[in-house]
Amino acid sequence: MSRTTPTLTPEQYEELGRDLDALRQRVLDDLGEADRKYIYDIVKVQRALEVAGRGLLFAGFFPPAWIAGVTALSLSKILDNMEIGHNVMHGQYDWMRDPAMNSKMFEWDNVAPAENWKHSHNYIHHTYTNIVGKDRDIGYGVLRMDEGQKWRPYYLGNPAYAFALMLFFEWGVMLHDMEVDRLMSGEKKWSETAGVRRRIWHKSVKQVIKDYVLFPALTGPQFVSTLVGNAAANLIRNVWAFNIIFCGHFPNGVETFTEEETKNETRGQWYYRQMLGSANISGSPLFHIMSGNLSHQIEHHLFPDIPARRYPEIAPEVRAICAKYGLPYNTGGLTKQLRSVAKKIFKLALPDNLRGKPAQPPAGTVGNGRALRAA
């Protein structure tokens, strides 16, 4: 359903910026032992699950043990990637001065090199959030996820590409910083990717050897069942991460922007873009932990360097600030958000004229029925 997003006056943008800056500073001033204990406890649980999972796979000849092992290993990988890796690499725990929790030194259980991911995600995505043509997370160079992306026959495969990306999500993340679409179009030279390729090679080879050679070999006669178990755990982690991330970025109501309208953006206007370009997923405390608190994507985009465990407690204040300025606060259950994302993937696979839409969005706007921001 189309809607009109309220625009703010320059004075309101400034006030919005002050409100959110004050909220951010209050949380930063309050960081301490509870936050430190939380992340250490999560790491302990993650490691215990990994040890339990790999231990149970030694008894892979007994189906219940294999299932329990895959379950434990899947949960371990989800925690490592979502609540630990993603958040630590955002610098959320740099204030602790613990090398193991430092964003510059952390490496996760994933084929994607941390350094490449921090460039494509921390810098590109979080700087240019939902700016079509700048934020490469809009479609990941593979999918059409916004009407501002010009339709091509290639996009008829949108649903198939999305399904493949979901199954092999860690590999998609690994290749993201390569910008393969730009290489194929000639916008980028192969020689420019030397550093990215080197890091991909070193990290992916180590990860493949660990999951599909070393640990299976350690289980001796259970080599094949352990290999399959590790592959299953990676698959479950990939599917979970894909769905959480897509539900936070692409459900109905999430807005996109043009480069022109974000030129010379103020702090308040940047906050405005983050609030409108994100969506939350409602759920239980355990659900939020397993999502890395990316179920609070609005709060994460506003404050990517604040420990994610704080997002649930500040969410009511962020929602109140949205209400103060007449801005939407996009949230819903996982099923609702997933259904919305799936609908968009299928809808945008079709040419615009078959959907009763103009070939391009109206000049100066992107998306469905969004009013321009005040200059």
UniProtKB/TrEMBL annotation:
Spans annotated as Disordered: 356-375
Domain Fatty acid desaturase: 65-331
Coiled coil: none
GO molecular function: oxidoreductase activity, acting on paired donors, with oxidation of a pair of donors resulting in the reduction of molecular oxygen to two molecules of water
Domain of life: Bacteria
Gene Ontology terms describing biological process: lipid metabolic process
InterPro entries: FA_desaturase_dom, Fatty_acid_desaturase
GO cellular component: membrane
Pfam families documented for this protein: FA_desaturase
CDD domains noted in UniProt: Delta6-FADS-like (cd03506)
Name of the featured protein: Fatty acid desaturase
